[in-house]
Specification:
The protein contains 14 helices and twelve strands. It is of the alpha/beta class and about 350 residues long.
């Protein structure tokens, strides 16, 4: 299916148009290349009451919880470094009772996305988790976190998890065209499934490229244009996380956030400076350069390492030749229909 709608817009417009208070929101990226600028913009617009899905919450989830955006969290991991005494925003919110959390294994979390992506309502998972507190302890999902059912084929009791279809996915990729064909390479994790199980998708990317570039490397397209609602070009849009082929993780800046995040007052100052105090990613990078110098960022830029090109050539790209005739029969569509009609084989 083709979609030739130009979907390029700013992060501000994309978040305003496609993310609503109370949405089920999923962060598509998994540990690397996080859609940081989209997350910052959600915080700037003071979006609220999300049920947030994140396979591996580190900086991204804590920022949104610090901003008061999240009521409920479904995850497999949150970096609560420092434990209960200094575990960051999620730990503080759990202790204060301002957030509810449902915890899954990586496999079970991904299974829910895959089921949603394929239009299923549930999916079977490995029953070993029934021996753990992940199965025994239920949060806001209650009985719907896991269900044990009887297999209609064997009669055996099997463990299932429900499919998930979040309202919107936010995801960062290396490149996309203006229509929304999103290309990503590197550690994939659950990125594709997180996007494709969602009802709406906002893609941010390091660069917008011509459609011909996408056509020349179709194996990198993990999200097709017809599923995408908005495309946001935002260089350094995943900083301080890494984007393969563009820049490495900024360990210094990451550490600065982690230290600030151990206390509510210090992380508020950090958020005021780096999230609310920057109108967009360009302003954020300008502030970074003013504080630390562009040399800090330049040292993170990736050195080129290209893969070998693949030959996607074919004798022709359509079953119809340049004169509109089907190649094997040499007939136009009208002539084919006429022949079928004469034989009584044409059905309206």
């Amino acid at each position: 299916m083709n979609d030739n709608t130009n979907k390029v817009m700013s992060a501000r417009e994309a978040v305003r148009r496609f993310i609503q208070d109370g949405d089920e929101l999923i962060i598509g990226n998994y540990t690397v290349g996080t859609c940081t600028e989209l997350i910052y913009e959600i915080c700037r617009q003071n979006k609220k009451n999300f049920t947030l899905y994140s396979q591996s919450g580190i900086l991204d989830v804590d920022i949104m919880v610090n901003a008061g955006c999240v009521d409920r969290l479904v995850t497999t991991y949150v970096m609560r470094s420092g434990g209960k005494a200094g575990g960051g925003a999620v730990e503080r919110a759990l202790q204060a009772g301002t957030i509810e959390m449902e915890d899954y294994t990586n496999f079970n979390y991904n299974a829910r996305l895959v089921a949603g992506m394929h239009g299923m309502t549930f999916i079977q998972v490995l029953e070993g988790v029934m021996a753990t507190d992940l199965f025994r302890k239920r949060g806001f999902m209650g009985e719907d976190k896991y269900r044990v059912i009887k297999c209609p084929y064997t009669g055996k009791e099997i463990l299932t998890v429900p499919a998930v279809n979040p309202d919107v996915c936010i995801v960062h990729v290396q490149r996309a065209d203006k229509y929304g064909n999103a290309q990503y390479w590197g550690a994939l994790g659950s990125v594709a499934a997180a996007a494709l199980c969602s009802k709406r998708i906002i893609v941010s990317c390091e660069e917008i490229v011509e459609h011909d570039v996408v056509r020349q490397s179709p194996h990198f397209t993990i999200i097709p244009a017809f599923r995408v609602n908005a495309v946001v070009e935002v260089p350094w849009g995943a900083h301080p996380t890494e984007v393969l082929g563009h820049y490495n993780r900024d360990q210094f800046f990451y550490g600065m956030f982690t230290k600030a995040n151990t206390r509510a007052d210090t992380v508020k100052a950090w958020m005021d400076e780096w999230v609310y105090g920057c109108s967009d990613r360009e302003a954020y990078i300008d502030r970074y350069a003013a504080r630390f110098g562009m040399g800090m960022l330049d040292r993170l830029r990736a050195r080129s390492f290209y893969s070998a090109p693949a030959n996607y050539g074919a004798a022709f790209t359509s079953a119809w030749d340049e004169s509109g005739r089907e190649r094997s029969m040499g007939l136009t569509l009208e002539e084919i229909e006429q022949r079928l009609a004469e034989k009584g084989m044409l059905y309206e």
